[in-house]
Amino acid sequence: MDISGNKVIGIYGGSFDPIHYGHLRTAVEVEAFFALDELRLMPCYQSPLKQGTRASAADRVAMLQLAIAAQTDWLCETCEIERQGSSYMVETLAMLKADLANSTLIVFIGMDAFNQLTHWYRWQQLFNYAHLAVITRPGVVPNNLDDFLANRLVSHAAALRTTTAGQLFFQTVTPLDISATHIRSLFSNHGNARFLLPDSVIAYINAHNLYRTI
Ligand code: ATP
Questions:
Q1: Which residue from 19, 23, 47, 177 has its CB within 8 A of the most atoms of ligand 1, so it is best to mutate?
Q2: Does the chain have fewer CB atoms within 10 Å around its N or its C terminus?
Q3: Which long-range contacts (CB under 8 A, 24 or more apart) does 192-200 make?
């Protein structure tokens, strides 16, 4: 809860093509660190800044649901998949906030994604709807902050509970140098991806012949 007794909801978006332990460990750590009341993992339909995904939206959702099956308190948020088209985060947040007006939203993004933030559609308006928590990622250093971002930076997570939106925070998580790109290339090269992602997701990939070619 925030200081007004409102729910604090974490939104962790991505392609999840496929979901892996870099995502899952991050989710465990931020849920605990920010004492989230709810955590939603949100596969995009089409990332505006990335090439199309390799697996279909339905397969990415299925893999995500398998991966979080034991985490009964986590949700797979499918609003971007249902909306289709380019998954502009600002539009997603406006939509979510319409239903969650009394909640504080914290959007989690990795450092690599954050370094592209100023290319996102109407990126400054994200802060009208949510706080942004940037997750460290091995080998990725932050770009210099412009004045808009520097003015929003807070150094204590508790600050995110004093307002419902508008602040920026950097959060260190256990560094796991795992990427979906590497996992896809292992599958296409008959490599072994075990322990980079859950066995249930590996079984799904094999059963559905995903990522056979690069
Ligand atoms: P790809 O290799 O296909 O670009 P990815 O592994 O970066 O994919 P995404 O689904 O694009 O995975 O990531 C979703 C979010 O999770 C992004 O904000 C990304 O920065 C973050 N993320 C991905 N992998 C890690 C990791 N190993 N540690 C911390 N954050 C991560």
A1: 23
A2: C
A3: 195/21, 196/20, 196/21, 197/18, 197/19, 197/20, 197/21, 197/67, 198/21, 198/24, 198/66, 198/67, 200/66, 200/67, 200/69
